[in-house]
Design goal:
The chain is built from eight helices and no strands. 71% of the residues lie in helices and 0% in strands. The chain starts with 5 loop residues before the first helix and ends with a helix. It is mainly α. The protein folds into two domains: 6-94, Hypothetical protein yqbg (Orthogonal Bundle); 101-180.
């Protein structure tokens, strides 16, 4: 373990025996790695930024160890949540957002939505603002509801983009032909 000690883990779990120290080390190390990964930070980066590992990070890591020790499977009859509720509350301020897999995926989806909106504007034209508003509203509500866009929708958007690009090229070539005439 990098920032928790076996003594802290035992105090958290209220244990006073040594026979499960290997298991506690495993749970502690795994919880630390998970929290650091979700924060998109390394131990060195966290200490370099804050001078130490902040208490909220330690606390939420201990809570994950407790969850792992008390409930040996991710979800059960009494608890359907795989991660403690206050995880987000405790860790959110320490998450480095740039370059995280979550942010990269979010930015990719937002790019798809912006491109879809551009394509909708091209297909619906400015004089048919009702159609444009309807199509845009559907895509935005889907993203708002699910915080994602489904793969089939992304495929449709990609197909629309390809068709729009080809159509724009045809329109440009046609306009060039008219200019030359």
């Amino acid at each position: 373990m990098k920032y928790l000690t076996i003594e802290q883990v035992k105090k958290q779990l209220r244990l006073d025996f040594d026979c499960e120290d290997d298991l506690l080390e495993l749970y502690g190390g795994g919880a630390e790695e998970a929290v650091l990964y979700l924060c998109n930070r390394t131990y060195e980066n966290l200490v370099g930024t804050y001078g130490c590992v902040p208490d909220p990070i330690r606390q939420v890591t201990l809570e994950i160890v407790t969850l792992s020790y008390d409930q040996r499977s991710p979800a059960g009859r009494d608890n359907l949540s795989a991660v403690p509720y206050n995880f987000d509350l405790m860790v959110k301020e320490f998450i480095a957002l740039t370059g995280t897999p979550l942010m990269n995926e979010r930015n990719r989806l937002l790019g798809c939505l912006q491109e879809a909106n551009t394509n909708i504007a091209f297909f619906a034209a400015d004089d048919d603002s009702e159609t444009k508003a309807e199509l845009t509203g559907r895509i935005v509500s889907m993203y708002t509801k699910y915080q994602a866009v489904s793969e089939p929708t992304l495929m449709i958007l990609e197909h629309m983009r390809q068709q729009t690009t080809a159509l724009q090229a045809d329109v440009k070539a046609y306009l060039e032909t008219i200019k030359e005439s």
